[in-house]
Design brief:
homodimer, 24% strand, globular
Chain lengths: 717, 717
Amino acid sequence: MDDLAAGTASAILGAANNHPMNKLLLILATMTLAAGAGRAQLAGTPELVAPGVWRVTIGTPEKITPVNTRQVSPLTNALAALPAVTDCPLAVSGSVSGRGCRVHLPLADDEMIYGLGLQFKSFEQRGRKKTLRVNADPITDAGDSHAPVPFYVTTRGYGVFLDTARYATFYCGSTHLQPAAAEAAGSSAATEVEVPEAQGVDVYVFAGPSLREAVQRYNLFAGGGALPPRWGLGFWYRCDAGFAQTNVLAMAADLRAEHIPCDVLGLEPGWQSHAYSCSFAWSTKFPDPRDLIAQLRRQHYHVNLWEHAFTHPSSPLYQPLQAHAGDHEVWGGLVPDFLGAEARNLFADYHAREFVALGVSGFKLDECDNSDYTGSWSFPELSRFPSGADGEQMHSLFGLHYQNAVEQAFAQHQQRTYGLVRSSGALASASPYVLYSDLYNHAQFIHAVPQAGFCGLLWAPEVREAANPAELVRRLQSAVFSPLAMVNAWYLKNPPWKQVDRAANNAGQFSPAAGQVTAQCRAVIELRMGLLPYLHAAFVRYHQEGLPPLRAVVMDYPDDPATRALDDEYLMGDSLLVAPVAVTDAAPATDQPVQRTVYLPAGDWQDFWTGQHYPGHQHMTVTVALDRVPVFVKSGAILPLAQPTLSTEEADSWKLTAVVYGEGNQPATLFEDDGAWEPQLTKVQLAWDAAAKSGRLTRMGSAPANAYTVTEWKAMP
Amino acid sequence: MDDLAAGTASAILGAANNHPMNKLLLILATMTLAAGAGRAQLAGTPELVAPGVWRVTIGTPEKITPVNTRQVSPLTNALAALPAVTDCPLAVSGSVSGRGCRVHLPLADDEMIYGLGLQFKSFEQRGRKKTLRVNADPITDAGDSHAPVPFYVTTRGYGVFLDTARYATFYCGSTHLQPAAAEAAGSSAATEVEVPEAQGVDVYVFAGPSLREAVQRYNLFAGGGALPPRWGLGFWYRCDAGFAQTNVLAMAADLRAEHIPCDVLGLEPGWQSHAYSCSFAWSTKFPDPRDLIAQLRRQHYHVNLWEHAFTHPSSPLYQPLQAHAGDHEVWGGLVPDFLGAEARNLFADYHAREFVALGVSGFKLDECDNSDYTGSWSFPELSRFPSGADGEQMHSLFGLHYQNAVEQAFAQHQQRTYGLVRSSGALASASPYVLYSDLYNHAQFIHAVPQAGFCGLLWAPEVREAANPAELVRRLQSAVFSPLAMVNAWYLKNPPWKQVDRAANNAGQFSPAAGQVTAQCRAVIELRMGLLPYLHAAFVRYHQEGLPPLRAVVMDYPDDPATRALDDEYLMGDSLLVAPVAVTDAAPATDQPVQRTVYLPAGDWQDFWTGQHYPGHQHMTVTVALDRVPVFVKSGAILPLAQPTLSTEEADSWKLTAVVYGEGNQPATLFEDDGAWEPQLTKVQLAWDAAAKSGRLTRMGSAPANAYTVTEWKAMP
C-alpha cells in the first residue's frame, strides 16, 4: 500500500519539471504521508492556455508528449476569433499510482463521444473501451489504429485531449464505480482514462460551445488544418510497383490519351534492391530520374515517390543515421529517431537534395505504423531511442515526426507538398498528409472519411482492383468525395478501368467493355475536377478556422439524435451532404440502380444532380443509378464547378459554372491560391440576385495571375 | 534521459522490499548517477531455489505476483527426484526503466518455444509477439487468453517463468537488435520480455534436461498436478440453465434410463433473480435444494453448481464483502478481493456452510476472466483493490484465487473436488479445476488439450449442440480423451443425442434417429469409463511427478522435428497417442469414414482398436469410421480398461480387462484411490508373461475396500 500512497503524494506535490531534486522532495513527502494516507482524487485546476483551451495538470507529466515534441505552433488569433467561452466546461480530476495515471472525466447521461483518432470499427465511442495502440491492421474494435489520437469531443460541446504518447486506455462510460467510489470521484458516469507508466498527464479541455467548435479549437491548437496545393486535390494515379522509367512514361502518355484527368503520378523507385528496408537510391530501372521527372512535369504531372523510413545498410543515410536510431532493426534497417533534430535534418537534407531538387512533389510514407497481427514486424514497444523515447512513445509519434522530417525537405525549397502516410497521431492537423491503409473494406473506407475528421486527420478511400466494373465506379465515387482522390494501382500493370480483374489486368487482357468503363470512370474523375474550387475553399477554412473540409453530420447538427450514428454519409464543405453507395458483401455492386437510405438533417435540401427539393429532418430512400452519387445541396447555396481539365495546371481549370440552388441566397466563397509556400489567398465571392436572375463575382483585392471567372450561371430553382 | 538513468540506478541498487527509505536511497543514487549514466544491462546472478530451479532477480520485483500470493507450496522432494542439473541452463539479463522491466533471454537458432498459457491460435510461439492479457474471447493471436501464463519451455530443455501478474509482452525471437545492441546484450536472437510498470521481476529458470522435465519442474514448483476424485474423471452432464428442481430430477432419471454413464450433474441455481450478478441464494425453482442433492447423491450423481463471483446487493455476502472488494462494479455486483484472506474466508465459509454441507461436490466458476471484445464487461485494469492490487494484476490472479477461495470451502469439509473455471493463470497446476470457454471451434478445442499442458493447465473440450449427429459423436470423442468429459447442455432442454438441433431440441422434437445416436454416444462415453483407471493413474503421475496426463507429442519427443507443430494429436498417459477427428468448416462431420493424417513418432505403435502394428517415425493417412477415434498404443503396453458402469460408484468400475499390446513387456501401473482428502493411493502393477501368455496383478500393500481385479487378459499381439 505504500507504493500507492507514494504515487498519490507525487501527484499532489509533483511539479511540472522532472528535476531529480523534485523527486527527492516527493519521496521525502511520501515517507511522511505513507502511513495511513489514502489515494486522494486530485481535482485539477484548469489553467487557460489559449482562448477556450484549458490545461489541467495531473501529477508530473512526461517529457516526451505530442505537445512537448510539436513542430507547429497553435493559431492563437484564430482561436480568439471563435465564440468566447469563459469557463472550462469540464471538471477534470485524476490520480497517480505505480501503474500510471488515471483521469476521471464526468459524462452526462445523454452525452455521446466521438474521436480517438482513426477508428474503423466504431463511430460513437460511448460504452467502449479503447486502447490507443498503433496498428496497421486493426482486427477488433479495441482501439488499434493507424492513427490513434487521445482526443475526443462530445455532443455537449467540448473536447478533451490527453497530452500523451502512451497507449492510453479510454473507458468511454464503460466502467461502473461502486457507489462509494463514485461519490468520492464526484460523478458516477465518466470517461475514465488510464495513461500507462506516466506519473502524470496534462489534460487539455477545448470549449465549444458546440461540438463543431470544439473540433475547430483542437485543430487550431494543433496549428490549423493543412492546405494542400491545388494539384494535390486533383486526381492521383499510383503506378505498378514494378514499373521502370519507360513504363511510367507510357502510363503518363496513356492517361492523357484516354483523357483521364490526372495531377499526380505515384512511383516506386525500387529502393529495396537488397532487402525490404530502403536504400533511398534509385534502382537501375530508373536510369535517369531527373529526366523522367522533368518529362512528367512538362506534361503537368506531379511526382510522388513511395518510401518507408527503415534504412538499409547500403543507403547513404545509414552511416550518419547510426547514432540517431533505435536499438532495434526493422527488416534489417535502422529506425531513425525522428524525435531528434539530427535524424530529421539528415532525412530532410537528403530528401531536399536528392529528390525535391529534382522536382519530386511529394512522398508516400509507408510502413510507419506497426502490427501485432501480421508477424509483429515493426520495432517493439520496448525499443529505446537516443531522444529518450521508448518504442511505445515512438510508435505514437513516429508517423507525424516522419511527416515533419520530409516536410522539412520541402520547406528548404519553399515548396508546398501533399502526400500520403500510413500513420499519424495527435496534433497532426497542419501536416499535409492523408492517411491510407492496405485494408479494402469499402464501407469502412467511407466511414473513415467523416470519422477521421473528429481528430484533425484526413483519410483517402483509395481504389485498387474491383470485383466488377460497377464496383470500380462506386469506389471511385467515394474517392472523389474525399481529401485525396486516388487510384492506387500498385499491383496492376494497367488502369483498372481497362480490366478490373487483377490477374487478367496484369496479363494485359483488357475487358471488351474497357471503353465504356473508361468513360464512366472519366466522368467520375471529372466530377472531382469540377468540385476542386469548392473543396479547395473548404480546405482554406480548415487551414484558417480549423473546420474539417470533410466532416460528420453530427458535427454540424449535434442536437439532432438522428445524426449521431451517421457514418455512411458526411458533409463536404458547408453546402454538400454526400452519401456514397457502399459496395459490401451483402450489397455487391451492380450496373442497375440501387437503393440506399439517406438522412437529411433540418433544412431544405436539393438533389445535386436534378435540383429536386427534399425537406430535411427525415430519413428517405433514394434510388441511385450507377453514374450518380447521392449528393444533396443546401438550398440557397451557390456551387462553383470548375471546367474539368486534364490537370489543375490548365488555365481552363479556373473557369467556373456557378450552379445556383434554390434562392441562391448563400454566397459562395472561393480562394485564388497562388501556390506559394506562404500562399497568397485572394478571396472571391459569388453571389446571386434571385430577382434579377443574375450572378456576380466579387474579388477582395486585385486579380492574381490565375483568377477565377464564371463562364455560366446555372439556376436549379 | 535522467528518468531512464534513474530507472537503471533503481535496478542496480534496488533491494527486495519497497520500504520508502530504500526509495530515498535510490533517488539519492540517481541524482549522483544521472549525469552521463547509461542504461546498463543487468546480468542476473542465478540463485538456486529448489532442485533444478534458479531465480534471477532483475531490479526490485513487485509485491503482488503469482509466487508472492501463492497458496500452495512447491514439492521440493519430487523436484529432487528428477535428474540432477548442476548449472542454470540460461543466461538471463535485464534492465529497468520508467516504463517497466525488460528481460533478455537468449535463443539458439534451432530452438522452438511452447507455452505462455492457454493459446488457442498458435502452438509454436517462436517469431510471435504475445501480450499475456486475460480475455474470454481471444480474437487474434496476440496473446489474449482465458489463462495466460508467463512461462514457456523450449526444445533445448529448459523453462522460463517470469513471476509477474502484469500483462507482460513476450517477443519470442520476433525482435531484432541492432548489431551494437546485440553485442551489448550478449546474444542476437532472444526472447525479449517486457513487464509493464514493474521496477523489477524475478525470473525463474527450470532445468530439464529435457523439455518434458522442464514442464514437470514447473508443475512441481507450482505444487504438483491436481488429482481429481475418480468421479471427476467420469462423465459430466450440465443441465439447461432454466431447469427447476423437478427438471433436474427428471434428467437424472432419463440418463439412468438411457444407460448413459454419468457421474456429475451440473445445475444453475438461479442466482440471477435481480441482475446478472449473483445472490448465491437458490431461486424459488429450487424449493428444497438439500433434498434435491440428497436424491441425486443416492443415484450416484455428484452435483456441480454454476456461479460467478460478482456479488449482487441482495446477496448475504454483499454486506460483509463491501470492505473487501474493488472500486468498480461488474453487472451491479461487487468484485471480491480474493487476494485478501478476508474475501477468501467469506466466500469459503459461505460456500462450505450453504453448499458443501448440503452435499454439493463442486462448482463451475464462470465469468472470472475479462473481455475487451464483447462490451468490455469485467472490472477495468485501472481498478483498485484493498489488497493493493490493481485491476491488471487482479485479472491475472483472479481465476486462480477464486479457485483457491472455493477450494478452501472443500478443505473445511476435508473433501476433494473437481470443477470448472473460465480463467486461470500461473502456478495453477495443483488446483483441481479445468478450463472451458464459450467458444466452440472444434479444431481449437482439440489443440487446447495438449497446448494447455505446457503450463500446468487442464482444458475441457466440452460438447454442446451440433450441426448433425456425426458432429456430436466426433465432438464427444475428443471430449472423452480430455481431462474432463462433458456435455454442456446449458441451452438445451434435452440431451443432444435426442436432437442435435438447438431449436428442435428445445421444442421437444426428437430426431427419428434418436435411439441410434444415443447408442453411438453411449458407446463413446463408455469408452471414457473404460479408460478411467488408466487416466486416473496418469493424473497420479501429474500429482506426484508433475507430468501432464494429456500432453503434446513434442514434450516426449523434443528432438524429432516432425513433432514440433503437432497440435491435432497428443499423448494421454504414457502409452496412448490420440488423434481425434476434428469437425471444421472445411471438413464437416459425416456418417461415412473419413481420412486424417497422423504422425507417429519413433517406436512400434499399434492401433488401439485392432492391434494392427505401425512403425513410427512416419506420417500416415488413416481411414476412420464414425465409431472410431484414431488412437495408437505403444506396442508392449498393457492397457487396463474398466468395465463401463453408469457411475464410478458402482463396484464393477474396479473390474478390469487388461489388454496386452505386442509383447506386453511394459507393466501398467494403477492406483487404488480411497477418495479421501489426503488420499491413500495403493499402487498396483499389471504385468504380462509373454512366454506363459499369462498376466498378473501385483499390489504394493494390502488391498483397500475398493480394489482393482482383472477379469480378463486380452492379447493384441
